[in-house]
Design a protein that fits this description.
By secondary structure, the protein is of the alpha+beta class. The protein has helices at residues 18-30, 98-111, 229-243, 292-307, 319-334, 339-349, 352-359, 365-372, 377-386, and strands at 5-14, 36-40, 52-57, 67-71, 73-77, 83-86, 92-97, 115-119, 121-128, 131-137, 143-153, 159-163, 166-178, 187-192, 202-211, 214-223, 249-262, 269-271, 274-276, 393-396. The protein is built from 9 helices and 20 strands.
């Protein structure tokens, strides 16, 4: 039997997705922890494929090195064919490629004394008197035990917590190159509802131009179940051909993901020294699926708390934001509101900067009240009255993998 070796760290971060990389970045950025170890799966089936993360931000945020594209104009297309174009200043919409983010964070870890990247599979996490212990398998199968004062675990949960409403945001995207210039690189199409709508939920196209002849084009649904790859491909083909009129194109790369949209209560602690982060810790915004911006905010808060010598970390989203999302999710799931019209009208009636802050959970009660008055009031009030009395039920987590916005 191969002997098990043991190593110590101040902080262990498990998982090399958006949440794990972001926390490692913020910890080393601020010089918070004396010893930070980021544990990522080795190359193989447990390591996710390259993917993109998008968010809106204002000013500098420490991610400039990893941002590969930005858009200063946002657009929505309604199901009726009308469009809404908005300037979200001071925000811009930003794309981060996972490979660029990894290079940035891995480079910082290599340059920071006491910080390191460890390639291995975390197999078990348990509390010990002085913190937590993580049992890992290194490439080749060699066992390793890691001890740390605090462990931050971003690995997906085996099952989703009980919820009153559970939808999925699931999508497939093509990185396309067209024979002629077809895109305006300054305008991002966040939601294009000019696609056939499913019997339950909603569907939309999503276009992020990277050059006049290149773009990421996605087909997305908010619904209860994922589709087959063939169905996504067919929907993308129709969207590119019949709606966007792209003509001849080459698909250079694809990406696919599933994001939970649920009002479940995600436990943020798995022991006195083990903390959940990312989607597993409730960072995904239930009503939109956006995760990356909340992960950045939460990572900065965790780093600041550790720097101040405590572990009282705020939740990624406040109680008020989660309550509003629970109402919207239920209204969408029951069909009481028309999803395409709901989102299109919000962008038509609410200033873009305020709406983006609302979607990010940073608006005031007064601002949220004003936004609420611009939604279908009766069905929303009816839903708000019933949500507190609905039972929470369990359902296994979707295991197809995620790609948080």
């Amino acid at each position: 039997m191969t002997p098990r070796s043991t190593e110590d760290s101040d902080v262990l971060v498990l998982g090399g997705g958006a949440a794990g990389l972001s926390l490692a970045h913020r910890l080393t950025e601020n010089g918070t922890a004396t010893a930070v170890t980021l544990v990522e799966p080795p190359d193989g089936p447990l390591r996710p494929a390259e993917r993109t993360w998008c968010y809106w931000g204002a000013g500098t945020d420490g991610l400039e090195e990893a941002v590969s594209a930005t858009w200063s104009v946002l657009r929505l297309h309604g199901a009726d064919g009308g469009s809404v174009t908005v300037d979200p200043a001071p925000f811009t919409y930003r794309m981060v490629r996972s490979a660029d983010f990894e290079r940035m964070v891995h480079g910082r870890l290599a340059r920071t004394e006491g910080a390191r990247l460890l390639r291995g599979t975390a197999e078990a996490v348990r509390a010990v008197p002085a913190g937590a212990e993580v049992r890992c398998a290194l490439p080749g199968g060699r066992p390793l035990t890691l001890h740390a004062r605090r462990v931050f675990d971003s690995r997906p949960l085996p099952d989703l917590p009980p919820a009153r409403t559970r939808l999925l945001q699931h999508f497939r995207g093509w990185f396309v190159r067209t024979d002629t210039d077809r895109f305006d690189p300054t305008v991002a199409d966040l939601m294009d509802f000019r696609v056939p709508q499913p019997a339950h939920g909603l569907a939309f196209g999503y276009v992020l131009p990277l050059a006049p002849d290149r773009a990421l084009v996605e087909y997305t649904e908010f619904s209860r179940d994922v589709l087959t790859t063939a169905t996504y491909e067919s929907a993308l083909g129709r969207y590119c051909r019949d709606v966007l009129g792209l003509g001849r194109l080459t698909v250079e790369r694809t990406e696919q993901g599933v994001i939970p949209m649920t009002d479940a209560r995600f436990p943020r602690r798995a022991g006195h020294a083990v903390f959940r982060i990312g989607t597993a810790g409730g960072a995904t915004r239930p009503a939109t699926g956006y995760t990356f911006a909340a992960v950045q905010r939460h990572s900065r808060a965790v780093a600041a708390a550790l720097r101040d010598g405590h572990d009282r970390f705020p939740a990624p989203h406040g109680l008020r934001a989660r309550a509003l999302d629970a109402i919207l999710l239920r209204a969408l799931d029951t069909g009481r509101i028309d999803g395409p019209r709901f989102f299109t009208d919000l962008f038509r009636r609410v200033p873009a900067e305020r709406l983006l802050r609302f979607l990010d959970g940073t608006t005031s009660i007064r601002e949220e009240w004003g936004i609420g008055l611009r939604t279908p009031v009766r069905p929303m009030l009816r839903t708000a009255a019933e949500v507190p009395f609905l039972p929470r039920r369990s359902r296994p987590a979707d295991r197809t993998g995620g790609n948080p916005r």
